[in-house]
Structure prediction request, 147 residues.
Amino acid sequence: MSFNNLDTLYRQVIMDHYKNPRNRGSIDGNPMTVDMNNPTCGDRIQLQLLIEDGHVQEAKFDGEGCSISLSSASMMTQAIKGKPVDEALKMSELFSELMQGNDVDEGDIDLGDIEALQGVSKFPARIKCATLAWKAMEKGVDEEKQD
Prediction:
């Protein structure tokens, strides 16, 4: 597939997640909730996680922001749901490397649609948009471990 076709496909995936976000909303009960924002551009996200027995049982988000920020949150919640917390954190580490423009060895971890965001690494001002939900997940997991 040519670069232009791949770029077009990635843009379509990003816009699909932006226009039809997966896991947008809130979790019933008493989920762990993390609010984060990017003051540079105004993106804000509220991430809710339900972690039981070391697994992310449920992940939902709400917020406002650009297509990169909200599509990344949609992709992330979809990718980490049902996964062991350690694997979700590994995905976050791989995503961070991807955003820094580094080649990543996914090993046994499938990033799926998340790879569509790799082009963001060429736009440093947008990296914080793409990583906002991931930083919220890391913060939430850290807080959960401390309780």
